[in-house]
Design a protein that fits this description.
Immunoglobulin-like, alpha+beta, 7-stranded antiparallel β-sheet, about 30% helix, elongated, 7 strands, 4 helices
Length: about 170
């Protein structure tokens, strides 16, 4: 039997796979997107702060506290280090006033916050070592990037400073 059709025209049975290729391609795209959406909703919520509305209402109080801290003139040198190949380490803070004199008699806490996993966060009270130096040992649950939220209080004076440290 001979085919009387022109040479450029193919039979319907030979080219019927092309629409199915489009369906398969978009099916894979939809499936991968669905998997990514599922993993995104099952992991970290992305919530950066609790009670954001209340913190927004306290905005003016935060500005006043920042102005009081600037007028105080304190500065902190924060050193965080790990013992090589271990999760143990220590934090040392040297607190000085505007004249460069050590600030003694303060109460300091250091909050270690993991940017990627809030369940690993912890707070340490720092012990005075004299001449404006405060320190504490710690054991990290994991190495990597850590934000250190330092709070120093002496009487009515309040000093807050944040720093980021990559600990390996």
């Amino acid at each position: 039997m001979t085919d009387d059709r022109p040479a450029g025209i193919r039979s319907a049975s030979r080219s019927s796979w092309i629409p199915w290729a489009f369906v398969a391609f978009f099916g894979i795209v939809v499936g991968v997107n669905g998997a990514m959406i599922w993993f995104a909703t099952q992991s970290w919520t992305g919530l950066a702060t609790d009670e954001a509305y209340q913190k927004g209402l306290d905005y003016n109080a935060n500005i006043d506290q920042a102005a009081a801290q600037a007028a105080l003139g304190w500065s902190a040198a924060v050193e965080v280090a790990l013992i090589k190949d271990r999760f143990d380490g220590g934090i040392e803070v040297t607190l000085t006033d505007a004249a460069g004199s050590p600030v003694d008699g303060a109460s300091l806490t250091a909050g270690f916050e993991r940017p990627s996993d809030e369940t690993a966060d912890f707070v340490l009270p720092l012990q005075p070592r004299g001449t404006g130096t405060y320190a504490a040992p710690f054991t990290l649950p994991m190495v990597g990037a850590w934000n250190v939220h330092l709070v120093a209080r002496r009487g009515d004076d309040l000093y807050v400073v944040d720093s980021r440290h990559v600990l390996r």
